[in-house]
Amino acid sequence: MAEPHIPVLLRPLLAACAPVCGTWIDGTFGAGGYARGLIAAGAARVIGIDRDPLAHHMAAGWLPGFHGTIDLREGTFGELDRIAAEAGAEQVEGVVLDLGISSMQIDTAERGFSFQKDAPLDMRMSQSGPSARDLVNEAGEERLADILYLYGEERASRRIARAILAARPVETTLELAEIVARCLPRQKPGEKHPATRTFQALRIAVNDEYGELARGLEAAERVLAPGGLLAVVSFHSVEDRMVKRFLQLRAGRMGQGSRYAPEAEAEAPAFEMVTRKAVEPDETELAANPRARSAKLRVARRTSAPAGRINDEEIGMPMLPTSRTTGGRPRR
């Protein structure tokens, strides 16, 4: 079959996790590139998880050739420990998470993830529940502005939110992209499309991607056997910050007290860092796969310490204000 997606940073991931053996979880299965790479590297079994029906449909043609070594399950990686238990694995030797959107989702125009072609404004990874169209046409101006600023780091969030409300109903990707483009300075050669941040923010909100990441990291800590490995590939600064802070906190590398209050009794570290800093793609990988340019890989090894919990705020998860009197973003 044609390869619709090139797994990013697979070679350094396998090198950092060597020797690969036992049962692994690929929590973001997609086209199965990581799962196949893990089997080829020595894993006895990979439990794949994906909420996108397209991933399951595409895998149906090639999975039988792996003779049961790859077990694909429907669900989200935020519940990967429960899914692993249902698959007969109370603990596993490794967890791989490839965050964000896959190439096959971007390249399927009718899914509404891309502003390159006109399509219904959808963006649902699970193809169920409220869509980006629902969010864009039903959310209030303040809520939209908060989403664009906190999830997309869009500095013109208020201006864009106001323009969206004035243009409602907004039905398609190109409609939305044109609304955003009119709110921002003209694009210079080589710059990202003006709607990039807005589309990212809406996709993250529709799919609860930051909440899913926080739940997935904790679930991975619960399911990994002592010595098991957690490998996470992220593609933008907020995701990478959340992963980095989670691992630092759970490896005991960040104090949890303050100068005004003593630290609580320190928990035993649940992870040891394998990669001292984020691993980025080399020139060879970038030449073969330009979409890898923003990717960062972090790997950590599970200790025998009990699993714990992390507060969302501690790991830098953007938090939408629950009211206009609590928290919030700078007004622009």
Automatic annotation (TrEMBL):
Keyword S-adenosyl-L-methionine: yes
MF term (GO), any: rRNA (cytosine-N4-)-methyltransferase activity
Pfam families hit by this protein: Methyltransf_5
Keywords: Cytoplasm, Methyltransferase, rRNA processing, S-adenosyl-L-methionine, Transferase
CDD domains membership: AdoMet_MTases
Function comment: Specifically methylates the N4 position of cytidine in position 1402 (C1402) of 16S rRNA.
UniProt family annotation: Belongs to the methyltransferase superfamily. RsmH family.
The name this protein goes by in its record: Ribosomal RNA small subunit methyltransferase H
Species of the source: Rubellimicrobium roseum
Recorded name of the encoding gene: rsmH
